[in-house]
Amino acid sequence: MITWNVPIWVYLWMAGMAGGAYFAAFLAERFTGGTNEKLLRLATYIGIPLVAIVVILLIIDLGMPLHFWHLLVGFEPLSPMSLGTWILTIWACVAVAMIVLWFVENSFSARMTRILKMGRNLLSMVALVFSVLIMAYTGVLLASSNQPLWSGTFLLPSLFVVSATSTGVAIVVAASLIANMLNRGGPAWMKSITNKLFGSSDWTISNRMIGHLAEADVILIFIEIAVLIGYSVWLSVSAMEGTSEALSLLTTGSLALPFWLGVALLALLLPLGLEIAVHGKEIKTRAVWLTIMASSACVILGGLVLRAVIVIGGQM
Amino acid sequence: MLVNKAEFRYSSARLSARKDASLKLDRRNFLKFSISATGPFVLGLVPISKLGPGLLKGFRAPQSNGDRKAILYDSAKCIGCRLCEVACRNWNELPEEEEPEPAEELSAAKWNAIKTTELETDGVKVKFFSKLQCMHCTEASCVSVCPTGAASHYSEFVEIDQDWCIGCAYCLAACPFTVPHTEPPKGTARKCTLCSDRVPQGLLPACVEICPTAALTFGDRAELITGAKARVDELVAGGQSEACLYGETELGGLGVMQVLQKPPSFYGIPEAPRQATNNVFIQWAGGIATAIALAAIPFMWIFKRGRQIEEKEQYKVEGGTK
User: Fold this and answer.
1) What are the angstrom distances between the C-alpha of B220 and each of A179, B65, B67?
2) Any idea what DSSP says for residue B294?
3) Pick from A71, A138, A88, A305: which is nearest to B45 by CA?
4) Distance of CA A181 to the CA centre of its chain
5) Top-level class of domain A6-314
6) Pairing state of beta strands B157-160 and B216-220?
7) How far is CA A77 from CA A50, A167, B137, B162, B168, in A?
8) Which residues of B touch A142 (CB under 8 A)?
9) What is d(CA B169, CA B153) in angstroms, rounded to the nearest whole number?
10) Of A92-96, A189-193, B15-19, B159-163, which gets the smallest average pLDDT?
11) Which of A152, B17, B125, B150 could form a disulfide with B165 if both were Cys (CB 3.0 to 4.6 A apart)?
């Protein structure tokens, strides 16, 4: 019986993507010397609504939706769902606090502004820790069970973390391309909104940065392929009862079509091919823009199919 | 005899039995309790009157197997009459089954079922019975994964508090015996309570009381094990060489043990059941380590390198102008 269905796999996909987008933007920003704060801001703007939708999905999928507050008056350290609820709540609160600081920090005296910026910097690191926990949580939730496909290996959290980072990068790339386009070619009101959101009138996410992110996703896809192979091999040799049957459900059974088309092709091979086709080219022509956009869309949708196949497969 | 449930559903005896079970406090549990209990109150989120079982789970350690009571099911004595199913349904006020044949599986409305497994040898079909119900594990998966503490140990019972359950269905995925079920399409998770509303009154669990062949017995767990082992020896001596006792040590000791005539896997019972969260720390560590050691690599590689190249280019430009 499939008890956990559409809301749950959409939930795991969105939560992972929110965590992955923040994780990717933070690292990209830090490793380039903190010069791309726009990127972190963009990831926060993506993450908060995703987490909000995630919380709504979780609540409506409960058998007793009006009892959801029982989750928030207790703390069960062994239960991944209890921990996950707190992790999502804390990440969202920190992210909202960061946004508030971004908007107000410059309206104080120089000394106060410096203190607030330090505070926001600290918060951004707390949010990084929790973004990692969000990504891991989506895997640990399923892995702490007695379903062979979920708990038969120790690699499901790893697979979900890599996939979450990959989809996170993809949504940041797609959002950057769209935001840049709206800021340059969009109507005036759109320009004024994006300017407000990013706190300056001459902001842009550089094409070089977007190109680097797309490159990072290529490596992530290679890592994801390796982890997926490791996960499959582990399932096939695991001593736990039912793991090889669970694996064959994906590779040759009733979920083979979504697995091969949706995961292997859409999430992994197709974006890999598209990215390699435009490798080294600058995002100046429409063809390159569209190719990167298409590859990001494949990664994002493929990530959804991966969650769907694993969540449904585990209950069959 | 069956007693009308409504008479003492809310009796003080039942409630006090629960309270006694709640007050097992050691230092670790106290610390866990203090942290989980005080946070929301400090934040002012919860009025004291809303104190729910979620905050009390830390108090309720499972009763040690030494002084625990248990059910023993002897599959060799069972005749498959299904009176235990009827008694369970009556006592727990569960709806009648609609199918013409009784379903040999558990559901939100069926907490106890006799399962028939047939074996054909030399053209003769022989029926073997086993009992499906909550095993009341010491290392209970439903208790460890429950995010609200609704599923919890109350002395020898593993119970899901129906007022506190949010119906997340996590226990359905976690239970190695697939016992809890949610009411379709939506509702709380429901399962056998080991008649926690009868036993504290000195009554037997409903299924045990009605069993006409004494295939079901209830009593001190240690004594039941001694008897069960003797019974297994008896069956083996009688030619049933595969007879075994299930539940003595599995998952820290089960509250429902079975004398089986065949190996557990014959009946579809897991040979080596595991608690859903027994690897939870490794799973967390694996996910976090992957983020740090694998997912971060491309960023370090591309962006750090990208920055170094940019710096070099800048240096060249600056060098050129000097």
Assistant:
1) 70, 9, 7
2) I
3) A71
4) 23
5) mainly alpha
6) unpaired
7) 25, 28, 20, 22, 17
8) 173
9) 18
10) B15-19
11) B150
Residue A5: is its pLDDT beyond 80? yes
Instruction: Give the pLDDT score at B313.
Output: 65
Does an H or E element contain B218, and which?
Answer: strand B216-220
What residues does each domain of chain A span? 6-314
Q: What is the pTM of this model?
A: 0.88
Task: Inspect the interface and report whether the beta carbons of B146 and A79 lie closer than 8 Å.
Answer: yes
User: Which residues 6-45 of chain A have a CB within 8 Å of chain B?
Assistant: 23-24, 27-28, 31-33
Can you tell me the ipTM of this complex?
0.95
Which residues make beta-bridge pairs with B71?
B218, B256
* pLDDT tens digits for range B36-68: 544 444 444 444 334 444 455 544 556 677 678
> How close B218 comes to chain A (CA, Å)?
29
- CB interface of B with A, residues 215-234, below 8 Å: none
Could you report the per-residue pLDDT of A212-221, keeping only the tens digit for each?
A: 999 999 999 9
- A103 — contact with chain B (CB < 8 Å)? no
* CB contacts, 8 Å: B273 with chain A: 146
Tokens of A27: 């690292």
> Within a 10 A sphere around the Cβ of A7, how many other Cβ atoms?
16
Instruction: Give the span between the Cα atoms of B227 and A178, in whole angstroms.
Output: 74
d(CA A162, CA A152): 19
Structure tokens, B210? 């009605």
Q: How confident is the model at residue A258 (pLDDT cuts 50, 70, 90)?
A: very high
Does the distance separating the beta carbons of A157 and B283 come in below 8 Å?
Answer: yes
Which residues of chain A are within 8 Å of residue B39 when distances are taken between CB atoms?
Answer: 75
Would you state the pLDDT for residue A283? Answer: 86
The residues in A 110-169 lying below 8 A from B, measured between CB atoms, are 132-133, 135-137, 139-140, 142-147, 150-151, 154-158, 160-162, 165
What would the pLDDT profile of A195-215 be if each residue is shown by its tens digit?
888 888 778 888 889 999 999
Q: Which CATH number fits domain B62-267: 3.40.50.720, 3.40.50.360, 3.40.50.300, 3.30.70.20?
A: 3.30.70.20
The answer to whether B126 touches B240, Cβ cutoff 8 Å, is no
Query: Which of the 8 DSSP states describes residue B50?
Result: G
Q: Which of A153-162, A217-226, B313-322 has the lowest mean pLDDT?
A: B313-322
pLDDT in the model for residue B33: 47
- Rounded Cα–Cα distance for residues A12 and B276 (Å): 19
Q: Which of B144, B290, B302 sits opposite A157 (nearest CB)?
A: B290
Q: Which residue of B has its CA nearest to A129?
A: B288
**DSSP 8-state class, residue B176:** T
